[in-house]
Every structure is written in C-alpha cells, then in structure tokens.
Amino acid sequence: MDNVKSSPDNSLVAQVLIFAKAHFILVTFLAIVVRALYKRYASPLRDVPGPFLASCTRLWKVWSTYNGHTELDHIALHKKYGPIVRTSPNEVSFGTCNAAKDIFAVGKGFHKTMFYSVFPPKHAPDIFTEVREWKHAQMKRYAVTPYSLAQMQKRSGPIESMIMLLMEHLIKYADDSKRVCNLGNLLHYFAFDVLGEVAFSKSFGFLDAEVDIEGSIKNIDDVQWYDGIVGQIPETDILFRNNPLRPYLPFWKPEPTTMTKIAVAELEKRKKKDGTYDSTGIDLLAELLRAHDGSPDKFSVQDVFSIAHGAVFAGSDSTASTMQSFFYSVLNKPDVYAKLQREVDEAQKSGQLSEIVTYAEAQKLDYFQACLKETFRIRPAVGLGIYRNVPPEGIMIDGRYYPKGTEVAVNGWVLHRDKSIFGEDVDEFRPERWFEKDAKLMGGHLYNVSVTRSEVRQISEVANSK
C-alpha cells in the first residue's frame, strides 16, 4: 500500500486534482475553450465557411432565433460566405435550390432532426412533429384525402361566410375615417376563425369580437417562440417545458387555449355511447374520423385529434402570416396596387368574378397570381431553417460529400434569393418577374416552405408555375 501511495503516477493525479479544485473556474473555462476549438478544427466540416462562433457552439443559433431575425441572419451569412455556410459545429446551411432538391428528394434517406421533438404535444406528435419516419408516413397517408383540394372546396360555404364577415369589418372601418384599422390583426383573427370552421365547423369568435380571446393567439406565439429557441438545443427541453417536476408545480401548469378547449369538446361531442365516433360531416375532424374508422389500429383517435388541432394551432399562424405579407407588399408598392386593382375591376365588369371570388376564378387573375407567387418568394411564412439529418452512410449534396452526423438545413428566405434563378433584383417585390421568359424556371424552384403542423405534404413541396 505504501508503494501505491507513493507512486509517481498517483502523485501526479493528486496534484492535478488539487489544482483543479483550487482553480475550478479557470479549469472549467479552459475545458470549454478546448472543446469549442476541437469542434471548430477537428470536425469534417472545418473547411466549410461561416462565423467562427457558429463553428464552436450552437449558442450562435440560439441567439439568432431569440432575437427573432433568423431569416435575415441567414440571408446575410450566405451573402458573405456563399451558398454553403456552417451554422453550428455539425450543421450546414444551403442557399441553392439544387442543394434543396438533393435534400428533400423522395428516397434520399434524410430524416428529421431532434429539433422537431420539442414541439408539443410531446405524447402525441402530429405530422409535423413526428420524427419516426414510418409513423410520419402512416399519418400522412391517412390525412391526404381530407387535405385534398377537392375536399377543401367542399368546405367553401363556411369560408365564404367568414369572408363576408371580414368584409363587413373592413367596410365599417372604411366608413369611419377616424377609426384606425389594424389590418394585420383582422387577418390573424380571420385565419383562426376560418380554420376553426374548416377543422371543427365552429368559429372561435376572434373576428366577430376583434380581440384575441383568452390570449390564445399570444399563447401560440409564445409556444412557437419557445419551440424555435429550445429546438436549437433540444436536449435542454427537459429543463423547461418537459421538466418532470412540472406536473407537481401548480404555478407552472399550462392552461389550455380556447381553440384547444373547442377541439376537445368537439371530439367529445362526436363520441357515441358505444365508444365509436360520429364521422358524418364535411369538416376536417369528420374526414379524419372516417379515416380512423377504416383503420383504427393504424390511425388512432389521438392521431385524429393531433392533426385536426394542429391544423388550427399552427396552420392559422402561417396562413395569417402569408396574408399579412401579401397586403404589406402590395400596399407598399403603389404601382403594383394600381395594376392589381385594375385587373380585378376589369374582371368584375366583364362578369368573370362572383361576389365571393371562387378558387377557379382567382386562378384566372394572372397578375393576382403573380403577386401571390412573389409573396411566397420574398416573404415565406417561416423564417427558421428546415432541418434534416444526413443518412448514416453519408451523402453527396450539390457536388460535395457530407458524413454521418451532419445536420443540413435550408431556409426559404435564402433559397428565394438565388440570383441565378430569380434575377439580380431578388430583394425587390416585383410580380412582373413572373411574366418574364424564365418564369417557368422560377416556378420550378419556388419552395412553398411552411412549418404548419397540419401539413400533409412535406416541407419541401415545389410549387409548379402556371
């Protein structure tokens, strides 16, 4: 024992431990620095350009998301570093449409990252949050029909009623020059109520009252703000929203929103005494319940609820954002506004438009369609990147090999500013570009990037030009 105690190796270890104990803060700091430098220089991504801090730690992404301007940060990064940028120690952001096609092509083996695991409901993920590929494909398969254009058009009646209500509110403001209309809020209320009708045949009453009832919209904004930030370091979620102590802390228990209460009530109302559900009707919930009736073992009632609830919870936000962006862009360009008004007026005079314009009629308004596409291009509804894991065997993306463990991302705001596709004036809202000779090329590279949790199609759907 004496020989062991006096061993030079043990003596050295003891000295190191004594030093570490006496200089704990310094040692911890040095360990963090060494770890960061290792990530920066020992990674197979070390030659990919990007901010120094981003190559060492994910905190760069957290800070960018926290500040709420991730899309602008990514645009600036790609302008500075080029089409490929390292945005975290093991993540690469791509700014070309060719790379996006490689990543989102069917059968390439890219799977969702743990970013999506943060989004609620944790116990019952929906199409957007489900990270298990087999389950995601299963849910998607049963939701395709309810989300088809043909089925959505069957629900046009309630949508038209909500449009009439929106018009009544706008006319009310137009008749009173002293009142200020917050168009952004009205569009947000409209989107929520429309999707309430589509999903549950029940409006939430936001538009009628012109108020965020029970703070439901703010609640969704807060949830998505949290998801975006914590999703960058998903393992920290257990410290916050999914903390195991939370159920035992009364002050920390979340209250269900108005829309969640309605969703729960509607599902319960359709439950029969024998435990089955009434699936008659044309709303989304009824359609999904019919899908459940056909395959109850593969498509559960919980799946039904998650998808229907998600359609409103997140779908309304991206829908409102798109409408707000459309009006913001058009109203800030007097020449565009004048052309669009002229097209609508002429179509109305020639009898081409109904009192409530139908989908088919709107498709024939060429300049309106150009304005809509330009809105999708310049201000996609989602500012965060869309994240995927590289397949286990590694893969080539846009001519370069990326190994297992690499996370890849694309951002619609960046993709739609690819000058080789959309022209030199990519930062300008100019609908006329869609009438130019390369309009078909642009249409083939316009990514309808949306992170609504009600999606049936994957994030990467490419919108074809007319």
TrEMBL record:
Swiss-Prot/TrEMBL cofactor(s) = heme
Q: Which InterPro entries match?
A: Cyt_P450 (IPR001128), Cyt_P450_sf (IPR036396), Cytochrome_P450_monoxygenase (IPR050121)
Sorted UniProt keywords: Iron, Membrane, Metal-binding, Transmembrane, Transmembrane helix
List the transmembrane segments. Answer: 12-38
Q: Which Gene3D superfamilies match?
A: Cytochrome P450
Q: Does the keyword tRNA processing apply?
A: no
Which GO molecular-function terms appear in the entry?
heme binding; iron ion binding; monooxygenase activity; oxidoreductase activity, acting on paired donors, with incorporation or reduction of molecular oxygen
Q: Which family does it belong to?
A: Belongs to the cytochrome P450 family.
| Name of this chain's protein | Cytochrome P450
Q: Which organism is it from?
A: Knufia peltigerae
